[in-house]
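Weekly sync, protein design subgroup
Attendees: M.S., D.O., the rotation student, P.L. (late)

Item 1: inverse folding check
M.S. brought a backbone from last month's batch and wanted to see whether the design step gives back something sensible before we order anything. D.O. pointed out we never logged the input encoding, so this time it goes straight into the notes. Structure tokens as presented (315 positions):
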């Protein structure tokens, strides 16, 4: 038989959005329970150095920052649990959620902060240097600064890839963009901006075969032309992947309004309200535009304040 727990506030996900929501909800005495999810700490745990989060004047590593956020949430007695929520039922006034260990939770409010996952190519060499923090990244705004004055390669042809290539072009001596078809997916204006940037070289019909390195750091990329099969090696110190993100929202699709790519839609602009009363969203699960730790933290705060006011109005 499953163990049913009745609580005021359930937070799903443990990135900056979830922990910030937890800090606010705990300090408001909502006794939040937070499930860490499949990737405790979220996307920041794959980021080496975070230099753009206000307050860390000397920078901080992503994993360190997430440990500090977790400890701050626990300091106010957030019940942080390993494991993940794998099923929800938002059809009633009480929101039912099930954890992977069989616990059934009945919550007055739920804050969804399940984030999004950057897509990667899935090559073994890519994953190796990603896990080593050796020069593979899915976020130019986060990591581009470390490659200033150096050469980088970026994969992708959508708006994100164009935006990130342009961002990198201002820091790097050269950016090589690998586009797998003979055209961009990005909007005309974004693609045009990239084409007009002198230090961006675009290689069409080109795919990545291997990320090259010295065992610790990236030194180049082996790519091939998918029309001619010709192979080339491009020297670089940073390999950026910008082939899209997938919001982690599958379990909510029967209850919440999602856009065509799966991002949760806000019911009221400028708030964290979803279309279900008592269910709020924070961070990248609803944000395909900014995707920054600081914006996720900001919306986490909003979600906790909205949840607190929702509960206060009910009692
Ligand atoms: P998209 O899904 O739009 O584009 C992904 C790109 O990655 C495509 O060009 C795709 O190629 C390429 N790709 C996918 N898999 C691979 C692979 N295995 N190897 C090589 N290339 C691959 O994702 P984005 O993140 O760019 O954009 C998501 C949404 O956000 C879009 O609606 C976009 O318009 C929006 N956005 C808007 C911005 C703005 O307006 N400022 C900024 C950023 C995003 P192919 O084309 O061949 O399928």
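Designed sequence read out in the meeting:
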């Amino acid at each position: 038989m499953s163990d049913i727990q009745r609580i005021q506030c359930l937070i799903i996900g443990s990135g900056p959005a979830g922990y910030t929501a937890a800090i606010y909800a705990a300090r408001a005495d909502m006794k939040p329970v937070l499930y860490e999810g499949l990737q405790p700490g979220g996307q920041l745990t794959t980021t080496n150095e975070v230099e753009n989060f206000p307050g860390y004047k000397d920078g901080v590593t992503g994993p360190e920052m997430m440990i500090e956020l977790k400890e701050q949430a626990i300091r106010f007695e957030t019940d942080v649990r390993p494991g993940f929520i794998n099923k929800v039922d938002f059809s009633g006034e009480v929101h039912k959620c099930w954890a992977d260990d069989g616990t059934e939770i009945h919550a007055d409010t739920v804050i969804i902060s399940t984030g999004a996952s950057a897509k990667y190519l899935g090559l073994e060499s890519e994953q190796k240097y990603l896990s080593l923090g050796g020069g593979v990244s899915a976020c130019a705004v986060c990591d581009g600064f470390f490659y200033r004055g150096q050469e980088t390669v970026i994969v992708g042809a959508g708006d994100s890839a164009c935006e990130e290539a342009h961002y990198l072009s201002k820091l790097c001596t050269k950016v090589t963009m690998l586009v797998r078809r003979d055209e961009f997916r990005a909007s005309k204006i974004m693609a045009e901006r990239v084409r007009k940037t002198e230090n961006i070289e675009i290689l069409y019909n080109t795919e990545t075969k291997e990320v090259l390195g010295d065992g610790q750091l990236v030194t180049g990329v082996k790519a091939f032309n998918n029309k001619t099969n010709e192979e080339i090696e491009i020297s670089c110190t940073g390999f950026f992947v910008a082939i899209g993100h997938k919001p982690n929202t599958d379990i909510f699709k029967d209850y919440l309004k999602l856009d065509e790519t799966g991002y949760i839609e806000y019911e009221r602009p400028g708030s964290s309200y979803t279309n279900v009363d008592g269910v709020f969203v924070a961070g990248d699960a609803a944000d395909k535009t900014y995707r920054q730790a600081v914006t996720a933290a900001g919306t986490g705060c909003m979600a906790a304040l909205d949840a607190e006011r929702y509960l206060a109005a009910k009692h």
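Discussion: The first strand starts at residue 4 and ends at 12. The two ends are 32 Å apart (CA to CA).
Action: P.L. to compare against the previous round before Friday.
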